[in-house]
Amino acid sequence: MSLLSDKLYRYDAARNARAAGIYPYFREIQSDQDTEVVINGKTVLMFGSNAYLGLTNHPKVKEASIEAVKKYGTGMAGSRFLNGTLDIHVELEKKLAEFVGKEDAIVYSTGFNVNQGVLSCITGREDYILWDELDHASIIEGCRVSYSTKLKFRHNDMESLEKQLQKCEPDKVKLIAVDGVFSMEGDVVNLPEIIKLAKKYNASVMVDEAHSLGVLGSNYSGKGVVEQCGVTDDVELIMGTFSKSLASIGGFIAGDEIALDYLRHNSRAYIFTASATPAATAAASMALDILKAEPERVKALWDITHYALDGFRAMGCEIGHTSTPIIPLFIRDNEKTFMITKMLFEEGIFVNPVVSPAVAPNDTLIRFSLMATHTKEQVDIAFDKIGKIFKQLGVLA
Ligand code: PMP
After folding, report:
1. Domains of the chain: total
2. Of the residues 262, 293, 324, which one is the last residue of a structural domain?
3. Is 244 labeled as catalytic in the residue annotation?
4. Is the dihedral of CA 303, 34, 223, 150 positive or negative?
5. How many angstroms separate the alpha carbon of residue 305 from the centre of ligand 1?
6. From ligand 1's centre to the CA of 389, what distance in Å?
7. Active-site residue flag, 275
8. pLDDT digit string (tens) for 318-371?
9. Residue 4 falls within a domain, yes or no?
10. What is the rounded CA–CA span in Å between residue 297 and residue 228?
11. What is the CATH number of the domain that holds 261?
12. What is the CATH number of the domain that holds 372?
């Protein structure tokens, strides 16, 4: 065994889970993606998807994607910067900027690339990034790649954020980077208070709307948490992805022209990678059109979300501070979390396990997420199976 293999072999978590028969990853979906999917030839209810508006299977979205392949081909074979810009990229950027209320937007190939490529590009050695301890891994990646001083604050804790702001030199750039809705816990960022602190300490704010675009927004607009809080002018950079409500893959950053012109010419994750495929770009664009035209989809998502939140509370499940379609069912034990995932799957319910090191060992949870297309009957089936298994394993009395 090479030294490298020897070192890598010491990672045994996956091997142990496989040996115990509770390995929950890489389950292969063999069907279209909706509230029901087929895995290993068996139909299961999908409560683990981020396709909040249920658009991945929408005929118009599929059609737009197919037409784009017919017209533009399959791959881009180049960076946006050089030979990889299509008219549909630029069109989508204009639509996104207008949708979130900013001057301009840039489409990246993934949401991960946006956070990594923006944070590392706009902050330098003299600057500061202040980040919430439960921010998404891609924000943390952006922090790692950035030469700036990184200051972590406790989750949604304004006292902790203020303490960190006080450590920064007053005349240096300070960027507060937060998730709009936290991806595992489902709680909403305390944006009004963050904006107050940002103004007090002359800091800038960037919000990741991955789980809030298509979900939050006034009058079921789906425009996101920034719009819902009425702080669009106070948030300098709005980030979003296409991999959730917009039924595709890709991401964007929106802001003023100065910031985006800088990013277009300096962001390595934008310049040194091939641009989003025609199929992905057209699908996101059509999904955005549907989101704008059909607020009733967002309303349906909230109706089923409230139904599920009420039901889990009534069952006595510990669901933390969520108020969104992401519902964490806290288990607080790695092995039990794996075991429940497996038992639920056998009962026809797909959910995602969230275990350490993604969260602290005593914060492990089952992530239950909803789509606008789920029915109450489907959620009732989940309640029934979850209640039974939680009691069996002592999670519920
Ligand atoms: N930000 C957040 C909050 C996310 O949850 C995710 C994906 N899970 C990303 C960014 C990355 O997005 P993408 O899947 O488009 O790379």
Report:
1. 2
2. 293
3. yes
4. positive
5. 21
6. 30
7. no
8. 999 999 999 999 999 999 999 999 999 999 999 999 998 888 889 999 999 999
9. no
10. 17
11. 3.40.640.10
12. 3.90.1150.10
